[in-house]
Amino acid sequence: MKLLLFDIDGTLMLSGGAGRRAIDRTFFEIHGIKNAFGDIVPDGNTDPAIFREIFTNHGLELRDESSAFAEVTTRYAFFMRDEMARSEQARLMPGVTPLLDLLGQRTDIHLGLLTGNFETTARIKLDRFGLNDLFAIGAFGSDDGIRSRLVPIAVERAEAHFGHKIDLSPQVVVIGDTPQDVECALVNGVTAVGVAASRYSVADLEAAGAHCAMPTLEDIPAFMKAITQ
Question: Whole-structure pTM over 0.90, yes or no?
Fold first, then answer.
């Protein structure tokens, strides 16, 4: 039995800038800051880390971090629903639909998410393309702001949901498009499959230590070989 943990942004889909726009609207409404996202590089980062960077960059005090984060995450989800619904550039990544169709039919494979998104906004993004039903479990930025800590959370939830023990090394695969996704897998001793369909190249992902890296998810035989090695 394999547990495949997919990243969302740049791996399964692109939001067409919906997340950036929703964040900018959130911080303008609450703190009066324009272009709050600025030059932040979100690749492989978690939403809590991005929000914390915005607070730091704009000199916003975090006297009560949990309260401050609760306020911005609530409004962020509100704006994300609006932005995602009308994002003209939002799209699935190449090969995602046929691959998920195949994986969803396999009884020897479980699907899950491992993403830096808050769970609420992750589900909003996936709902645009009707993908939520395929991913019953996952670990999210709202669970922990450090990506490497999300693997054990995802595995624990998968064990509870699917009703059996899942061993990290032989059974768990992390699929993502950034070196941070690869590092997250390696730190936890699980298989790392890199997908160079977004900002990073196959060479970049291989240099980060990916067990396998491919240009897109369109080569289904290569993907199936990678997850069964």
Answer: yes
